[in-house]
Design a protein that fits this description.
By secondary structure, this protein is mostly helical. The protein has 3 domains: 1-34, no CATH class; 35-226, no CATH class; 227-263, no CATH class. 53% of the residues lie in helices and 4% in strands. The chain has helices at 12-21, 38-45, 53-67, 76-87, 97-100, 105-120, 124-141, 178-209, 215-223, 228-235, 240-246, and strands at 3-4, 33-34, 149-151, 170-172. The chain has a two-stranded parallel ribbon with strand order 1-2. Strands 3-4 form a two-stranded antiparallel sheet. Helix 1 links the parallel strand 1 and strand 2.
Length: 263
């Protein structure tokens, strides 16, 4: 099945050549599906494949209409709420439990924390300490049995969050020593970073393509900084740690960056 983001009219000669050079087999024009809205086109552009974009295009359009505001999004909490409202409301996702968890307010709060690390280029040590503080706050404010359970994925899960669930994807913080919590935090930070980078960022890119994000806020999420020189160094393969070192003022005489050419 071939999906186009816009309608294309082929001449008979062009169609014949296309059939010869393409690995796509065109059975009939009825089999070609295309989308018309900007949001659906940007979903394809950013390789979102967790749901049927064509099927849910009307829902995406309606969700976007209800969520769009004249105010640019400039904080993680609003960003995650908007992603949930547009891409989760009345849309069925296939086998993507981690993303669907964004319906849960506790999950949104945690990913706000993860995005804040990314935005300021936090060190691994800082992240571990922040996760442990976050879990301690969960324990202190817990009211129900579910509040003590933290999602860690089916690879590390020991308990279910509720009897209705079938997969053991959670741990009970009450049963863990501090050393055990540190070990779990290390594993989870890496996995959550991967989730943000390879899953959540696709949806953030769609919102940015739709011009819904503040420019500085978007750059901080994507690069960990809104400083143009830092972004220039990152785009040229330099790590955040080295970029911070080079830009601390000691090496100004030896460092130059053609910022305008990095866009």
């Amino acid at each position: 099945m071939m999906i186009l983001t816009e309608k294309i009219n082929f001449s008979s000669v062009a169609l014949s050549r296309f059939r010869r050079v393409s690995s796509v087999v065109l059975i009939s024009w009825v089999d070609i599906r295309y989308v018309t809205s900007d949001i659906a086109k940007h979903c394809f552009k950013n390789n979102i494949n967790e749901f049927d974009i064509h099927k849910y295009e009307p829902t995406l359009i309606e969700n976007l209409k209800e969520s769009r505001s004249d105010q640019k999004i400039n904080d993680a909490k609003t960003l995650l709420e908007t992603i949930g409202n547009i891409f989760l409301e009345n849309i069925e996702h296939d086998g993507n439990d981690e993303f669907v968890r964004l319906k849960n307010q506790a999950a949104r709060n945690f990913y706000s924390l993860v995005l804040s690390w990314k935005m300021r280029g936090a060190s691994f040590k800082e992240m571990i300490a922040a996760v442990l503080r976050h879990w301690e706050e969960r324990l202190e404010n817990a009211k129900y049995d579910q509040d003590y359970k933290i999602y860690v994925g089916h690879s590390w899960g020991e308990v279910k969050r509720s009897d209705e669930e079938f997969v053991y994807s959670y741990i009970d913080l009450r049963e863990k020593t501090r050393a055990q919590k540190v070990n779990v935090a290390i594993v989870r930070i890496k996995e959550e970073q991967d989730f943000v980078e390879y899953n959540l960022m696709k949806y953030i890119e769609v919102l940015n393509d739709l011009e819904m994000l503040d420019e500085n806020f978007y750059e901080q999420i994507k690069y960990g900084s809104s400083d143009k020189k830092t972004i220039c160094l990152l785009k040229n393969g330099i790590s955040m740690e080295l970029a911070k070192c080079l830009l601390n003022g000691k090496y100004n005489l030896y460092l130059g960056a053609e910022v305008a050419k990095t866009r």
